[in-house]
Amino acid sequence: MDVKVFDNDTEAGKYAFELIKQGMDNGAKVLGLATGSTPVTMYQAMVNSDVDFSNMTSINLDEYVGMAPDNDQSYRYFMQSHLFDKKPFKETFVPNGLAKDPEEETKRYNKVIADHPIDIQVLGIGRNGHIGFNEPGSPFDAETRKVPLTQNTIDANARFFANKDDVPRYAYSMGIGSIMKSKKILLLAFGENKADAVQKMIEGPVTNDVPASILQKHPDVVVILDKASASKLS
Ligand code: F6R
């Protein structure tokens, strides 16, 4: 794993975008993308650039089951407002939270990934070492599937919803097997509350208890950190 440490998340986000640009110059056509607070500075760098993404395809990691794309808590909404509405892509894929048949939806999404092999996958990491919604214990060979959210995640999300019953209980998530097939992976992590997970991912044993630790086995991973998230590395 190639580890890069920056003074702050703005510099780190710019660097991540530099790597994406280099990849595009070398023929990358498909980006795997994440939501959450971590990739925001990278999306800002993309939006503020004069780079044209209209020949690019994106495939997002996850979406809440039951969530409409125009719900401002949906990952589709996040992607439109942070990136796609400002920088049009050729095609953008996010799991369909409103799909009637979850099995069909996961099949459809796995076909999307098979038909558009991911050149560069952008990842954040959870405090428990999750990537996508692949929580501790997730199999390393899984494809996209419907997964229950942990109680922790449900409780953390409750603040965004007027009614506790509206908080999603399930998500569609790209599996770790699919993530590992990406040609290149950029994992970004910022803030002290990610320092333990980052340390375990890079220096700990490869174990399902820390899903991101499997990235040690991928041939081309760049870990992009700020000083706080790197503070527990030896
Ligand atoms: C988001 C995703 C998650 C987040 C992770 C970190 O699409 O798949 O794994 O990357 O939970 O979230 P933030 O960036 O909000 O700390």
From TrEMBL:
Cited Pfam families: Glucosamine_iso
InterPro entries: Glc/Gal-6P_isomerase, Glucosamine6P_isomerase, Glucosamine6P_isomerase_CS, NagB/RpiA_transferase-like
Gene3D superfamilies in UniProt: 3.40.50.1360
Record's keyword terms, sorted: Carbohydrate metabolism, Hydrolase
EC numbers, comma separated: 3.5.99.6
Annotated pathway: Amino-sugar metabolism; N-acetylneuraminate degradation; D-fructose 6-phosphate from N-acetylneuraminate: step 5/5
Reactions it catalyzes: alpha-D-glucosamine 6-phosphate + H2O = beta-D-fructose 6-phosphate + NH4(+)
Spans traversing the lipid bilayer: none
Record-stated family: Belongs to the glucosamine/galactosamine-6-phosphate isomerase family. NagB subfamily.
NCBIfam families tied to this protein: nagB (TIGR00502)
UniProt-listed HAMAP family: GlcN6P_deamin
Function of the protein: Catalyzes the reversible isomerization-deamination of glucosamine 6-phosphate (GlcN6P) to form fructose 6-phosphate (Fru6P) and ammonium ion.
Record protein name field: Glucosamine-6-phosphate deaminase
Gene that encodes it: nagB
